[in-house]
């Protein structure tokens, strides 16, 4: 028995515990009330169809029960009991429910559709259940470490990524922030919220890093400017007096704060909600362009 069947039976039991039904629960409900559940999520003025069973957390969601053409029930009264699977139950007489899942996780959404007897049809009930996986959209890519970049050394950059894994990361370094005409990037899978990239900067100066991250429901692109110090400058800093060191340190903090704020603005402006899961890969791997 698959997970879906177990979920359905659980759902049925839950609904039956709350409602004393006269109809036989084991009749094939799809023959009684043929229909299906369709999920929509709003982002701004756009509604996205979510047909992969994946929803974004904290986003206004609408689930519609679409009754297949059924002449006998055109004048019947319907009742809908929506069990969101997170302890929330919503009753109504409309085939639509509006809600949102505040937290990511896996839920089983159950719907009981009841129809009162009409001249042409008996009183019946239909039970529907569907498993939904609620994911957090990617909201932020924040550079955590390091605060210092030197030339010709193995530097590990660490980022905090706010969003539900697994995530697909596509990144590229742009030396001197020169636009890359090939448009290639390196593809990495991320199974946690910390992203680590190793890089050997071969030149001092300001370099750019473009990071694009997506999960099944969202995508975020962020650009970072990194100031890489040359070896000679580094030596002078080390040999200088404590007083000079303190001022340099403060300047460096102010600088990195400003840089961080800029990257966040860029980040929020580029967030995209994905309409549905693509079967084709969005990002193509070209290998590291500037590793030596
Ligand atoms: C179904 O019929 C019963 C009894 O007549 C009534 O109390 C109930 O409100 C009806 N339900 C709907 C959804 O009309
Ligand atoms: C929803 O309806 C069920 C029976 O149909 C009832 O047991 C439950 O208390 C109702 N819940 C609310 C919030 O009205
Ligand atoms: C939810 O279900 C998916 C697929 O069945 C699974 O990969 C994932 O680990 C589950 N998530 C949680 C939080 O249980
Ligand atoms: C619809 O009503 C007709 C009688 O008007 C009946 O013959 C038919 O079986 C009904 N269909 C269903 C699915 O109940
Ligand atoms: C970084 O690259 C430079 C130039 O290619 C090379 O000389 C140096 O050994 C590299 N450093 C590391 C840590 O790989
Ligand atoms: C750079 O450092 C990381 C972690 O310290 C290591 O995994 C990686 O192999 C190193 N790369 C090179 C080219 O030395």
TrEMBL record:
Stretches that traverse the bilayer: 234-255
Gene Ontology CC terms: plasma membrane
Species: Channa striata
Record's keyword annotation contains Kinase: no
PKD domain residues: 77-113
PANTHER family tied to this protein: MELANOCYTE PROTEIN PMEL 17-RELATED, TRANSMEMBRANE PROTEIN 130
KW Transmembrane helix (keyword) present: yes
Keywords noted in UniProt: Glycoprotein, Membrane, Signal, Transmembrane, Transmembrane helix
SUPFAM superfamilies associated with the record: PKD domain
Name this protein carries in UniProt: PKD domain-containing protein
Signal sequence, renumbered to the chain: 1-22
Lineage: Eukaryota, Metazoa, Chordata, Craniata, Vertebrata
